[in-house]
Amino acid sequence: SINSSREEVKQQMKEELNYNIHNLLTFKIMRKKKRDFMRDLNLEFSLFEVEDIDNPDIFLNIGKFTPSNNHCYLIDHKYHIKKNYLYCKDSGGRAKWEVEIFGFEEGATTINYNGRVLGSEALFPDRIPQTNILRPLIEYKLDKKGYLLIHSAGISNNNKGYVLAGRPGAFKSTLTMDFIRRAGFSWLGDDRVIIHKDKILSFPMTPVTIDFKCKYLQTEEFRGFLDKIRFVKYLHHNTKCENCDASIAKSSILEALVFIARTNKGAIKKRDISLDEAVDKLVENNRAEMMLEHFYKYMLAYSFVFPNSGITRYWDSLKENLVEILKDVLIYEIEIPEKYDLNVFGEVCKLL
Fold this sequence. Notes:
This protein has 352 residues and is α+β, with helices and mostly antiparallel strands. It has helices at residues 2-12, 37-40, 127-144, 172-183, 207-216, 225-237, 275-291, 294-305, 314-326, 342-351; strands spanning 15-21, 25-31, 49-50, 58-62, 73-75, 79-82, 85-92, 95-102, 109-117, 148-151, 153-157, 160-165, 186-189, 192-196, 199-201, 251-263, 269-272, 330-337. The protein has a nine-stranded mixed β-sheet with strand order 3-1-2-4-9-8-7-6-5, with helices on both faces. Strands 10, 11, 12, 13, 14, 15, 16, 17 and 18 form a nine-stranded mixed β-sheet that branches.
């Protein structure tokens, strides 16, 4: 059972990390205790960390385990699947791992993960289970509660929140940085935010990173090797964001959804977008991001065995929830030139 599995893991592991996302969803990560500067940065969910939680929605065990993959369907000679369960051996880049997920579709979830990473990725060995499995699972579980984790940036001013959506490289992060340091806005998220009814909830995954960029970089891109060295030094003294200047808002009223499009045109242009177009853009943006994560393949394999499952219906559910949330929200797109400068920011600030 899941409970007995968790008790067995607790006896084997010595360190646990606990997280609470706006009292909506809780999760626990357990791993071998080991002092390691790069490992202890824990950038992904640091601002949601709490002392302890009971009965977490998700329990991630990082370490050796014995799989319970008996009586399973075997899909693509790789994925072992039965009701509410998945196990597989997988790889990506210079990493190899095995993973099993109890509560894959519904109920409390336990993830057992054991992997090996080579090369520079070995500096962050826990990032693979967090980004490839845990984060998309959080997205799925929040959607079931009507809270949508959207791939976008978020900023706030006077309790008015703005979602800045767009494809990677559209200057969302750079605009967010300038709204924070030049226009006095607060930060809701650099890569993802949560929307629900008429509100935006913060989802600041990398507060230390965005604070460093606001202080030392002109745009979101590192300019060279020296910037990266300075960044590592900065992380060493700010692992928990104690000295961050960027104000992080917990939530704001959803004022507008703004798509940012990077073009080769010289002039900045604003156009209204229909609800249907906006929803399609957001769904496909989220899908494109999740396709980069291995959890997407796990969803497809599970859907083949259980075509009427909640996993299979996830994208339809996301679309339906977005329509309901955004039906009364102002939506438009701003096209900005390929070359970003402060004049571009000034124009975008006026339009917003």
